[in-house]
Amino acid sequence: MAREHILVGLEIGTSKICVVVGESKDDGTLKILGVGEAPSRGVRKGEIVDFDTAQKCVHEALADAEEKSDVEIKGVYVGITGAHISSFNNRGTVLVPEDQEEINEEDCRSVQLSAREVSLPSQNAFIHSILQHYYVDGQDGVLNPVGMLGHKLEADYHIIHGISTRIKNTVRCVREIGLDVEDVVFNPFATAQAVLDQSHKDLGALVIDMGGGTTDYIVYVDGAVKHSGVLAVGGDHISNDLTAALRIPLARSEKLKVEEGSVIVGECVPGEMVVLKGDAGFAGKQVERETLNTIIHLRVRELFELLARRLDEQHCLEFLGAGVFITGGCSQLKGIKDLAEEIFGMPVHTTRAQSLSGVTSAFENPQFSTAIGLVRYAQADQIGRPSGLFAKLKRGLRIFGMF
Amino acid sequence: MFEIHRQTPLISTEADSIKIKILGLGGAGCNALDRILLDGLEYAEAVAVNTDVQALTASVAPRKIQIGRSTTHGLGTGGDPELGLASAHEGEGELASELEGAGLAFLCTGLGGGTGSGAAPMIASLAREHGALVIAFATLPFAFEGRRRATQAQESLDALRAAADIVVCFENDRMGETVSPQAGIHQAFAASDATISQSVRAVSELFKRPGIMRIGFDDLSRVLGGRHARCIFGHGESDSDNRANEAVARALKSPLMDRGRLLEEADSVLVNVVGGPGMTLNEVQILMEELNRHVGEHTQLFFGTAVDPKVGNRMSVTIISSLVAGEAAAASVARVPEAKPKRVSPPRPRVEKVNLPPAPVVEPELVEAIAEAEIAPHEPSPFFEMPEVPEAEIVTEPAAQEEPLLVPGPVAELVEASHVAQSLEPEPLFVAEEPEPEPVVEAVEEIAPEPEPEPIPVAEAPVLPPRPTRSFPRHTRSAPEPQLPMDIPQTKSPQQESLPFEPVSRGRFEKSEPTIVDGQDLDVPTFMRRNVRLK
């Protein structure tokens, strides 16, 4: 069973745990071998709140994935999210030593470290420093400064950080099952790799991943990540709203949201009802469709408006040439595209993972965008990655924020 | 031990002995009667009455009376009500003997033509003279039948109202709504017949079928009596698993109900639920709950129910009501909830109308007083946003203590309105906080009688922010709504009946930390935070 490089992405989400097994071919393409899935319990708002339960669910998802892809999974790339994660942009500067003419790799590493020399809150650790642009002696538009002549190398980085204990929690949960954690990846960053292609990134795009527990977002401007973040509001909030308003059990409102959920208000026939059939412990109920839609509409609108405000504060919205890409479970709500267009004022696409080969059903489901993105990230990561024991060790330490 | 035979009805034998006669008068009336007979008629005798011999022959009624033999010579009246009346006089003797001994007489007729329009009032009074209670089912012509017929029909209807005890009147236009525009015209007329048939059978069953809770003639006349009333009628049946919901859904879908909207306006509504022995109390409850959502708070409900083994699995509900002409006209002219503002005007039992005049005077002082009291505990900077964070975090008493005056809902609404003046806004999320004169006045109406905080809502205040009584419109407006529906300054009555008294649990988010953004706890449902009234 000589497989070329196997890459596995694990997303521990609030509504589902998802494991995507991919194969990286020499020609650079990525093939999805299988997707394992399990309902998630013990995770709220993207973070693990019940360790043991979550672990069991991860185990289940892994078993499912191994069976479907016929691969033994040893190491995974873990996606992470949570309201504690935030980001900012910072510039690092490094002066090229006098005797050295050309800029070399060492300088690039130094400039990255320099960019990280910023005080994070004491409990926080770095998750990513994503390169945005290089500047050589003030000149921008430099893609790769290695080999260029210059005195001063600067670089802008998008720094993503979060509370280290929570990140470690997730890592520990995965480790205890017996897996190696190759890297911890911020979810929207991964999602963007699956959903956007380079042209979108260059034009400028916003990716919104509306999941069960959180809504993650990331903004690309001029091919570089400009802003990213998490709002701890997701599909769960919609279901909760429905439960509160309609006084029905949570499971039923979840089902109702999935089957009949729509954000379109004002277009229902008055008196049009949605019938919920009775069940054990639940007498049937009739709900006016307009009411249902209104509840969902209010919540989703609020979410989008909040997001739009945040992005506006960062002056991101003006530069989005490719528009907005919405993915994730909640992107399947009817009418959400139009609502988003109204609020963001630019074209919106409800989308999913793009241009992959392999199990098609996997990437047709927007819920898997993030996990597939993790595999893509893994692919890119592996290419630029030194192998060997020391490198592995260093990677391990990096996860704990020390590098 | 003695056994009660379930075959014998448990009601007094008096009702059994009341004879019910159903008369189909004129062409339309006889068509309706035929339909009734085809659908199955128990408990009553059917009689077809017409001037047109051909039509009479074709009818399937067991008893037939030809009126106006010499007036019309067996041909119809040609749409002339006077001929119809003359014919009726001519046939008076036969009619009288037919009506002899009848306790209850149903008169089915289509108005606008000759026989029905002319004869109906006369026959109705004839029946009354013979001691019968008369319920007339009359149809008004389709709009396309022209103005002349409509006028004739209306005149005849007025006469009929004077002559009969109860008049149930249907507009053919409404019944045409049940059929698709592509349907043949015979289908439209057939729908009209079907509706009459349903209503006649339903009403006759009301009286005759043994019931657990009886509805009597007095109830019916209470609901349907009154001059210039427009009848609301709905009938729905179902025998599926979900029969309670379906039956009431079908009943409400009846075009004569205008999909249930008209029920809100009615003063009294009669509901009869019939089912087989398998009908459960739960189902009846489900049905009535659903129904209750469509009737107004002040509506008197006459509820009757019967268990009839003959219907087997089928559960049916009949809804009968009427509207006073003014409201009926308004409701029919504009099918959108202009009805809403009307709800404010009918006298509310709780708020004494006496207080209304002083309201405007009270208001400004009260606003200031409250505004001051409001500002004091909060912040010295009135133009800054309200410090939302402490408020949001407060899941306990402090909120109530700080603002005792906030407790009654409408007062709080007042406060919000006053706050708006100080541009309260971390939240453009709180769309539409423009101070509206209406709700304020409304609210004050309520304030005047009860200025003290009430203990019950206090328990509420901590969790839910004060609720301005802004209503959420139930139906769309005709103009497209660019903003959120709650921008519409609709005011609902200042009542708080829908405040839940149980503490709101965090539901799904028990174990996680709350999502506080810009001072708001986003875990609390959006519609709650924005005080959107849902149905």
Description of the molecule:
The complex is a heterodimer of chains A (403) and B (535). With 403 residues, chain A is α/β, with parallel strands linked by helices. Helices cover 36% and strands 30% of the residues of chain A. Chain A has twelve helices and 19 strands. In chain A, helix 6 (235-246) packs antiparallel against helix 8. The model of chain A has no long low-confidence stretch (mean pLDDT 88). Chain B has 535 residues and is an alpha/beta fold. Chain B has three domains: 14-208, Rossmann fold, CATH 3.40.50; 227-335, 3-Layer(aba) Sandwich (Rossmann fold); 353-529, no CATH class. In chain B, 41% of the residues lie in helices and 15% in strands. In chain B, the strands form three sheets. Chain B has a six-stranded parallel beta sheet with strand order 3-2-1-4-5-6, sandwiched between helices. Chain B is elongated, with a radius of gyration of 29 Å. Chains A and B meet through helix 6 and helix 8 of A and helix 12, helix 13 and helix 22 of B.
Instruction: Give start-end ranges of low-pLDDT stretches of chain B.
Output: 9-15, 327-490
User: What top-tier CATH class of one domain in chain A fits best?
Assistant: Alpha Beta
Individual helix count of chain A: 12
Q: What is the end-to-end distance of chain B?
A: 53 Å
Q: What is the share of helical residues of chain B?
A: 40-55%
The main sheet of chain B orders its strands as: 3-2-1-4-5-6
Text of the CATH class of the largest domain in chain B:
Alpha Beta
Q: Provide the domain count of chain B.
A: 3
- Any idea what the CATH architecture of the largest domain in chain B is? 3-Layer(aba) Sandwich
Regions of chain A with pLDDT < 50 over 5+ consecutive residues?
none
Number of strands of chain B: 12
Structural class of chain A: alpha/beta
